[in-house]
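Researcher: Structure for this, please.
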Amino acid sequence: MLTIRIAIYIIFVFIISETSYANEIKKIDLKNGINFIEQKGAAIAITKSKGKFVSGSESDFFTGYFLPSGKTGEWIIIQNINKTGPASYYSNEINNMDCNTQSIAFFKRNNELLFARAERSDLERDCSIGKANIKIHFYKFTVTAEIPKFIETETKTTKNKYLDAFDALEHESWE
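Model: Predicted structure, token format:
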């Protein structure tokens, strides 16, 4: 009887550890330039570039390309499909003199490629008002009818308040 209980306990622990491992989200650290990510027999190229503005601020810009034949084949630009607002072909961080009001991060979960766009709300873009809740928009990579897209799947508002949008991406729970 004790042997059966131990076996059941071991199976239970294994299932729990496998489940939590399977849903683990891993951040992808992107360098400036071209970053290749393997994705189900194809490749994704994410370019990270810097924009400098007359105001003295600068922002990182991210553009995704789908490479169906791998790194040496055709490059197809990836559309970002937003729930509200028009589609776009890039995502960017927004920095002003006081804080980071929009931040971007890429992740892998269960062999899925995701990205998150964290932003202070339109009313709270003025960082001098202090910390604010941050909206995080989640996008999932998909290919339908041979058209690659990052489709916005959900939006969450942070439980905690942050001055910088990138702090929300670093400290909020993803589950």
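Researcher: Any notable elements?
Model: Helices lie at 2-22, 165-171. Residues 2-22 form the longest helix (21 residues).
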